[in-house]
Amino acid sequence: MNLDDLATRLDSAADQIAETVERRMRNVGADGVARIRANASGRPGPNVITGQYRASWKAVTDRIPYGAECTIGTEAPQGRRLEFGFWDMTDSIGRHFFQPPYPHVQPALPLIEDTLHEEMRAAVGELFA
Fold first, then answer.
1. Which of 11, 22, 89, 99 lies deepest, with the highest CB count within 10 Å?
2. Is the pTM of this model over 0.70?
3. How many domains does the chain have?
4. pLDDT per position as a tens digit, 81-94
């Protein structure tokens, strides 16, 4: 490959990078949500009662200059309490609570990280193919 060919390929990749990375990040988000939901489907994670909490997990992907970012999360109020638990809490009417943690996000993070790496390698391969 000569330098002119390389310059042409780099120009082509630069034109396609944002779209390609955004598509790949959507895959990461979908996979991350699926893994968290699977972990929130019974022990050691939280048990499923109505399924509303598990269904509340969403991934939002936004395009940024030359790429994309993905945020995975829930707006459910019990999210932090289920993930981290709480120790020795008394509410406003004097009831005493202790809830152990039921981690479901933390166990999914290494798998989400692996998926991110795989998708970014695939994006680079796609851009320079």
1. 22
2. yes
3. 1
4. 899 998 878 878 88
